[in-house]
Amino acid sequence: MNITSTLEYLEINQHDDFRSGKIYTTYCTTFPADERRCEKQFRALFGNPCVKIFSVLDALQEIGYLICWELTECVFVEHFEIFSEFRSKKYGSQIIADLFRDYSRIVLEAEPAELSTDAQRRIDFYERNGFSVIDKHYVQPPYEAEKNALHLWLLANWQPEDTEALKEEIYDVVYS
Fold first, then answer.
1. What is the DSSP letter of 33?
2. pLDDT tens-place string over residues 20-41
3. Which residues of 152-167 are buried (b: 16+ CB within 10 A; e: fewer)?
4. What strand order describes the sheet that includes 51-58?
5. Angle separating helix axes 91-102 and 117-128, nearest 10 degrees
6. The pTM is what?
7. What's the rounded Cα separation, in Å, for the pair 12 and 160?
8. What is the rounded distance in angstroms from the CA atom of residue 131 to the CA atom of residue 93?
9. Pairing of strands 51-58, 61-70
10. Residues 6+ apart with CB under 8 A from 119
């Protein structure tokens, strides 16, 4: 089954919005502890002017979410999830196409392809949808002192002139 309607992106501005609760619950289920914020950090995102949290809807049904950071020259997609019951229905490709329409420069992190078949599948998905790996030595800082830093790949839909400066801005704005 493919998407037949236009997706809606509802920006969630308050941590007490019922949609943010659903987002946080699935976020905690989907992403391992080292790849996500604790509840206090998640709630703090709603007060950060650089962050946009979107609930993605199709025909008024919530199908996923995006957590994006508006940086100096690009948008950083920190988390992007299609809820499990809606996967393999081309929603991910539609969301990326919509992001490309709204933002000219997009960057995101992904697990290295050699980590698992799921990681390889994600990299293939991003590459099919216009992203390229721009750094295979990227390290995501830990969200908290007791969590681990992660070796990830950095992907973008353009080739930044200064990848190191881009990484520094991600570290300073997203992970500080």
1. G
2. 999 999 999 999 999 999 999 9
3. bbbbbbeebeebeebb
4. 8-11, 51-58, 61-70, 75-82, 106-110, 150-156, 132-140
5. 50
6. 0.94
7. 30
8. 12
9. antiparallel
10. 110, 111, 112, 113
Q: What is the pLDDT of residues 104-149, one digit of tens each?
A: 999 999 999 999 999 999 999 999 999 999 999 999 999 999 999 9
> Which residues lie closer than 8 Å to 99 by C-beta, 6 or more apart?
66, 75, 77, 106
Q: What tokens were used for 37?
A: 């914020």
pLDDT tens profile 79-114? 999 999 999 999 999 999 999 999 999 999 999 999
* The total number of residues written for the chain in this structure: 176
By CB neighbour count within 10 A (0-12 exposed, 13-18 middle, 19+ buried), where does 132 fall? Answer: exposed
CB 77 within 8 A of CB 102: no
Would you state the structure tokens that stand for residue 36, as one six-digit string? 């996500």
The number of angstroms, rounded, from the C-alpha of 29 to the middle of its chain's C-alpha atoms is 15
The tokens describing 120, both together, are: 């390889």
| Local structure of residue 141 (DSSP, 8 states) | P
